User: Which sequence fits this backbone?
């Protein structure tokens, strides 16, 4: 990722003077990796094509269009940093630079987007003007609008300098309203697009009002009187419609959850959090709490459903969101996420610092103070079906709810395992959507540590929570002609034991089939067959040891369950990174049971090549016995398949 050091003066001649395309096309067609951000921000893509991490040079028209998207967005963020800093420091030089870039962008916008919607956008897209997508237009214009807002508000006597930017602000607000109206007419009000369209409308309208008012000062507009916020299809209505009672964005995608929350908080600039209606205010707090509860102690955010596994540009968004959340609610709980994101972002653009020191703060009132209970061992959002279990240094995430629409993956009953800061078995995330082959892979059941039947992808499905208590939960998915695998069902039970995590999976089918449970690590993995059990050692900064047992039956009696280790692609940041995949498979089975006990090793991690016996495991027809290192034996009942209602 490339950024401009804040002390370096930049020229408006560096602005791109072409429309942007779709950023998801910024992917190597051969390797499936995102391409290098070389030359960004700048006027034109590299002449010889854009590099991929594996040495390719790609200069196709879609890649050029994607590069232009990223460059336009980087310029908008750069202008925003300059404007916020000028407002804070009173620097004439930085104000002049920001104004010059904004006025130049007004010329670019009139030149390249004045003809209306982008004629080269794909048919399925909600068309933009400067970019293929209206969503991309909205994201870009939110940065432009906030830059104008800061400059006009901090120096109202010079607001006339910004009048050439008014056509852009007016046009983007108008386009945002038109795009939102199309979504509403199509019955897609809850789309994550709506949050950004509302943000663009509110920010650009307010910025334009400040410019027009000049020294007179634009009158404050209450939340209740602001259509973009409190209208029938405004942000507050969207926040209630597009999230669960517990605060998850309905698609249950970590990326889109943060994406929508950031749009909400960006649009609420200048408001007092305490002035928001209680329902909407509480929902936004819950959205921040979702991320804090999902993150590991060292700030890893599992990449549930669509979203990058690792991406420096996304890391910058997490740092921005952390600042905004801190301004909205005291102790938002995202400090570890922000610290980790800073390490991942590398050469950042200092937007986070400017937001923290913005004169008067982002919001017009202090952060909300909320009493929060102690974090439970087991937490579940039953509407989206995401559970988090914390057990003796293991951070387990179990996905069992609705598919998640277009951003969903075939990961029903997938179990993801993390330490404080080690991704032992993470959600693999997703590549840029412009690579259909690798996108299909990372949506598939094969990419996830879940149950597979006959090795095909299931139909979309919704699991359900069967039971839970303070230290355990059991979830289930059933298949029929239109859901999951027809004639099959499975349940998964997690128990936070004393010093370990117990994982029990039971799958059954109405006829002999191939039943498989997968392990998908992102660390070196050692696997050893030891009599009737398999032992695994998971490397990384923290070490995880596992002991596993399985049995299966078919029409003629017992069926062997074999653990096969084979090379496979790692998570989606680089599909070429090879990892050991393990599949426990029973051929011709009508019922299979897999039992695993995971325990954090007290050592220093390592290669994962030498599994050790931290606990002993014995499974018979009715119970599971776990012998701990201290010799104590814990007995757990073996769950039966759920009976029909």
Assistant:
């Amino acid at each position: 990722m490339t950024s401009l050091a804040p002390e370096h003066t930049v020229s408006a001649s560096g602005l791109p003077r072409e429309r942007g395309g779709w950023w998801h096309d910024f992917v190597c067609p051969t390797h499936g990796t995102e391409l290098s951000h070389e030359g960004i921000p700048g006027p034109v893509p590299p002449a010889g094509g854009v590099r991929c991490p594996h040495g390719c040079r790609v200069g196709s028209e879609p890649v050029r269009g994607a590069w232009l998207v990223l460059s336009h967005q980087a310029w908008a963020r750069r202008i925003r940093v300059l404007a916020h800093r000028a407002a804070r420091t009173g620097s004439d030089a930085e104000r002049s630079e920001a104004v010059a870039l904004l006025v130049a962008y007004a010329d670019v916008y009139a030149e390249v987007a004045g003809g209306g919607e982008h004629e080269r956008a794909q048919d399925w897209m909600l068309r933009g003007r400067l970019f293929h997508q209206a969503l991309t237009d909205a994201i870009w214009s939110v940065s432009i609008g906030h830059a104008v807002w800061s400059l006009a508000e901090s120096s109202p006597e010079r607001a006339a300098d910004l009048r050439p930017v008014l056509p852009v602000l007016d046009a983007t607000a108008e386009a945002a309203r038109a795009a939102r109206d199309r979504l509403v007419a199509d019955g897609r009000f809850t789309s994550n697009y709506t949050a950004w369209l509302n943000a663009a409308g509110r920010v650009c309208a307010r910025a334009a009002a400040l410019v027009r008012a000049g020294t007179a000062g634009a009158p404050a507009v209450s939340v209740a009187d602001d259509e973009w916020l409190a209208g029938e299809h405004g942000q507050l209505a969207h926040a209630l419609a597009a999230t669960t009672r517990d605060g998850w964005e309905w698609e249950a995608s970590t990326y889109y959850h943060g994406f929508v929350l950031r749009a909400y908080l960006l649009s609420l600039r200048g408001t007092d959090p305490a002035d928001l209606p209680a329902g909407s205010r509480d929902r936004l707090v819950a959205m921040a709490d979702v991320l804090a509860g999902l993150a590991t102690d060292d700030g890893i955010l599992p990449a549930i459903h669509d979203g990058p596994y690792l991406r420096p540009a996304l890391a910058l968004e997490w740092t921005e969101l952390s600042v905004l959340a801190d301004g909205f609610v005291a102790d938002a709980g995202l400090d570890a996420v922000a610290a980790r994101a800073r390490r991942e972002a590398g050469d950042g653009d200092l937007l986070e610092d400017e937001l923290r020191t913005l004169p008067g703060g982002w919001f017009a009132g202090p952060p909300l103070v909320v009493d929060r209970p102690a974090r439970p061992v087991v937490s579940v959002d039953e509407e989206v079906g995401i559970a988090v279990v914390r057990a003796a240094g293991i951070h387990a995430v179990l996905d069992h709810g609705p598919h998640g629409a277009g951003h969903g993956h075939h990961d029903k009953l997938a179990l993801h395992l993390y330490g404080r800061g080690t991704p032992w078995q993470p959600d693999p995330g997703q590549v840029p959507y412009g690579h259909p082959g690798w996108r299909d892979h990372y949506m598939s059941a094969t990419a996830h540590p879940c149950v597979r039947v006959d090795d095909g992808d299931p139909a979309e499905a919704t699991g359900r929570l069967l039971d839970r208590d303070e230290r355990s939960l059991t979830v289930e998915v059933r298949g029929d002609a239109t859901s999951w695998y027809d004639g099959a069902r499975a349940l998964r039970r997690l128990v936070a034991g004393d010093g370990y995590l117990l994982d029990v999976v039971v799958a059954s089918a109405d006829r002999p089939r191939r039943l498989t449970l997968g392990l998908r690590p992102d660390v070196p993995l050692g696997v050893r067959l030891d009599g009737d059990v398999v032992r695994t050692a998971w490397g990384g900064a923290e070490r995880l040891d596992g002991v596993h047992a399985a049995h299966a039956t078919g029409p003629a009696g017992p069926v062997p369950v074999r653990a096969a280790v084979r090379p496979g692609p790692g998570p989606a940041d680089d599909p070429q990174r090879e990892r050991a995949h393990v599949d426990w498979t029973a051929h011709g089975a009508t019922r299979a049971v897999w039992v695993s006990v995971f325990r954090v090793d007290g050592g220093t991690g390592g290669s994962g090549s030498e599994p050790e016996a931290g606990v002993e495991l014995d499974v018979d027809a009715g119970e599971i016995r776990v012998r701990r290192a201290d010799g104590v034996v814990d007995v757990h009942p073996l769950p039966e398949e759920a009976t029909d209602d």
Remarks:
- Confidence is low (pLDDT under 50) at residues 1-8.
- Residues 306 and 534 are 32 Å apart (CA to CA).
- Residues 382-637 form a domain with the Beta-galactosidase; Chain A, domain 5 fold (CATH 2.70.98.70).
- The chain is about 30% helix and 20% strand.
